[in-house]
User: Fold these one by one.
Assistant:
Number 1:
Amino acid sequence: MKRIVKPTPKNEEITVSPKKTIVSRTDAKGIIKFANDYFMDIAGYNADELYGQPHNVIRHPDMPKIIFKLLWDELKKGNDMRAIIKNLAKDGRYYWVITNFHTLRDEDGNIIGYYARRKAVPQHVKEEIEKLYKTLKELEEHGGMEASEKYLNEWLKKHNTTFQDYVESLFGGDKELIDKYLKSEVSDEQLGKCEDKYISQYEKSHSNTKKKKSFLNRLLGR
């Protein structure tokens, strides 16, 4: 699959509806296996462009690398994580979301992928966390990720919190309420139906059997 060339970022924000959920699923290496309609509407890519791409195809250059290192360190341990992330759309615009990353395992308990739900972020939350991200990004540019990691660890210690708790505190600290917000609109049952629909759509538009099998294997993590 052809790698997507990232666009030049624009200082223009895409408004994410708080009533809709952006959903995606990847394999254990972060390769996209599924994206729902709203993901594609916001990011500007279609299914053929997204499936098989690394999820960092939508990573905005304003995001500090240490945040993703922190996320991956926890996810590889099997821990679910929440984070507030600035993403890059196909046309160069950006959008902010709070994301809940959930670890997927096979029957033997091995990690086989990750499932993420994303929702809109209130303006005050964007403004608050952007201050921290800007500092971390500047430190990385001058001293590498070691500098930003040191600062983040000291910052969290100073505030007597973890990154996860800090993110949740920006939404009032009510974990149950945050869960309800992130899970609103799209249920697991609906997600399964969406995946079935995309398999059907892809098969109709791709008559080549080899392509169909490749897509199904990617989608199902095989």
Number 2:
Amino acid sequence: MKLMSLKPKLKEYIFNSFDNDKSENPAKIIFRRFPMPDESFPVAQVKNVLDSSIVKNFDNTTKAKEMLVTHIINTLVDNITANRIDFKKFFNECVDKVEELEYSDNKISTIDEFFKYLPEEASYTIALECYLYAKETEQFTIEEKKILN
């Protein structure tokens, strides 16, 4: 058996955002690696309300009840935030460099420069597109090996 990729992803990605792909000299994101299917780069880890010392030491007093309500609300907010993608973490893990990108007379070639010089909305838009590309699954097929006698 021989496993074949039908459409391998390229490590050099020309993003479409802001009509970059229509440019004569488009900017490129060069990937070091692609994330595994179970990698999601969350902003924070999801928290469990029941794992806190507030719940474990709950003594049914008014102060304890107030602390518990505050803790539940804070945990809920933290968990909503945790499900967001940390694009800087994703870039640091998976992207090697940026090529041919400039903004406001700043040549951008590193990940730090990408997030430092680009406006937040632009870096978010490009990073989201790169993330979605990187998370695309490759399609594979199996080819039977030819046995030579």
